[in-house]
Amino acid sequence: MDIRTATHNDNTPIIELLRVSLGESLIPKSEKLWQWKHVDNPFGKSPVLLAEDNGQVVGIRAFLQWEFSNKGKTIKACRAVDTATHPTYQGRGIFNQLTGRLLEEVTADGIDLIYNTPNSKSAPGYLKMGWESWGKLPLKLNFHLANSRKTVLVNSDWAQVQKLVQTIETGDPTFSEGQTRLVKGYLNWRYRDNPLYHYQFISDGEHYLLVYRIKEGKMGREFRICDLFTKTELSKNAIKELGIALNQQIKISGARFSSFSGLAYSKQNVLDMGLLPILRVGPLVTLRKVSEHFSPMDQVWNWSLGDLEVF
């Protein structure tokens, strides 16, 4: 069995392996999604390794390149994402071999940390390989029990906020302290061009941009506030206007509850989401130290839900 770097010509067998191993589940597998996620990413192309046996791709391991900002400094990261082993080859240690080899490669490339949000089944395996549990992301929840009807929302026209998007991405890098570094093209790639989820926004086109999506789940329809960006400190009128617009969209959506990162919520004074306390009920975050000069567990993180969503 050979381990090698994936090339563009491997996209079709990669998608076939993902389908055979994982099925479509909640995230459909397609070359369009792979291209957007692992090639068009503004942080760079994903490092991807394959396990091959007699010319057949039987294992895959991909790390999604990412960057965070901390006090004006760039933290180079990767997110452990797509992995699969052909059912016939499972139990032979292919996952560990590919992950270990890929860790060696990204270490040589100057990556500071690896992060991911594993489920309860995969988390123990990552912890055995040196990942550490940061804990569950705190969430600020607000319930809207009066909402019952489900209305199709009018699609947001992202062309209307392109000037504001450019301003946000070229602004003060300390704005995203402890969050994703807002490089040029990130917001359009992450939200407007996302082939998996449909993202909407609330904005006055000049001062603020709130990005959200509607998610169906066991608790009912969720109004998920993925990110909130403000160009400057908002006036009282702007805060009031945003609050009214948000409440209107929540009502129109028929969402039973809204959610926002508790880390981001505690550091803003724009949104008022009721009196319920912030609870650690979000996704589990695990971190893997890569650079000997960087300790991810000692950082002050301010992740948004958009930073940690699985896609």
From TrEMBL:
Cited InterPro entries: Acyl_CoA_acyltransferase, GNAT_dom
Domain N-acetyltransferase: 1-152
Pfam short name (any one): Acetyltransf_9
CDD domains: NAT_SF
SUPFAM superfamilies to which the protein is assigned, alphabetical: Acyl-CoA N-acyltransferases (Nat)
Name this polypeptide is given: N-acetyltransferase domain-containing protein
Organism classification: Bacteria, Pseudomonadati, Bacteroidota, Cytophagia, Cytophagales
